[in-house]
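Objective 1b. Sequence-to-structure analysis of Thiamin/hydroxymethyl pyrimidine-binding YkoF putative domain-containing protein.
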Amino acid sequence: MSTRLDEARAAGATPDQLGVGMRVSLHPHCDDFVDVILGALADTAAAGLTDDLVLETDEVSTYVGARTAPAEQRLAAYLTALVAAASRRSDGGHVVAHVLLSRGCPGEVSCDLAVTGLPHVAPVAIARTGLRAAAQWSLYPLLDGGSAGGEHMAHIEAAIAHAQRRGTATSPAHYATTLVGDLADVVATAVDAWAEVGAVVPHVVTHLTISLGSPSPAEA
């Protein structure tokens, strides 16, 4: 474990050394949800979007690990395609995805990540899907100093301001910020903020609950 961390400090952290990945749970609200989920997974694989990703599914969620750069782009493209495929296969019905993205604390190595050379990555580029999505988004910068007066709120506030400038952040909610827009823009907002904070904070987590086709009243 110490050897991998020493390498990360010396050469700058790679996605594999940092532990860049996500957990995703897909929930189509329809009678044939099994076919929708399995079909969406097959569609995403057929599009080549699982290449260079590690996928491990259990009864709760699927772990998606990105070992090589551009890790953030791979994860964002996979997530967008998966949710879009589920929406299409459910004929535009109500589909929800719970997503947890993490970088900087891989389960197989120590979380003592005093890593130098944290990577700055380019914003993700995802083609618009034509599908309206609403999401509740939370961002958690960890290991940002460890003191009671840590800088985590400054990172969070800057990320929300950036999302507002992008036009996807519509309103604050309890413990979250509401994002609305094309599915691709919503995913890109969360992933870009997560990656940007990850360039200065060794361990960053973001949580996103995405909803398409909800029967509840839509926000602007």
